[in-house]
Design goal:
The chain is mostly helical and 120 residues long. The chain has one domain.
Length: 120
């Protein structure tokens, strides 16, 4: 039986399309992307004329040079972050200000961690 399964397994492995491995920091990048999407929605509510988080996200993606799958996941995380806050916040409330403060802090920590661990 194993004489049949081994060649089949080898054929299936060779026939399967090669998939790129995610970098070790992918989960952190997706979280950072989600936070940046949230900031893109929240910051204009409470701090008009502040940072353009969408432009910064585009720069981050371009610097990382991800394949199309990773690019889509990063953009999707950004959009999820935006949507999550757009559902509940329509003006700058104390809750929105608190969320903004916490998200800015988390984004800074994540960016520093990613840079410290994985920058060349």
């Amino acid at each position: 039986m194993s004489k049949i399964l081994l060649p089949v397994a080898i054929i299936l492995a060779l026939a399967a399309p090669a998939t790129a491995l995610d970098p070790l920091y992918q989960r952190q990048m997706e979280r950072l992307s989600e936070i940046m999407g949230s900031l893109y929605f929240l910051q204009p509510l409470c701090q008009p004329d502040a940072d353009d988080w969408r432009a910064q996200m585009a720069d981050l993606i371009n610097l990382d040079e991800p394949d199309e799958d990773r690019r889509q996941r990063l953009a999707g995380a950004f959009n999820q972050g935006y949507t999550a806050y757009a559902r509940f916040h329509h003006s700058c409330t104390p809750s929105a200000r608190e969320a903004l403060t916490r998200l800015l802090s988390e984004a800074e920590k994540l960016a520093r961690t990613i840079h410290a661990r994985y920058a060349e």
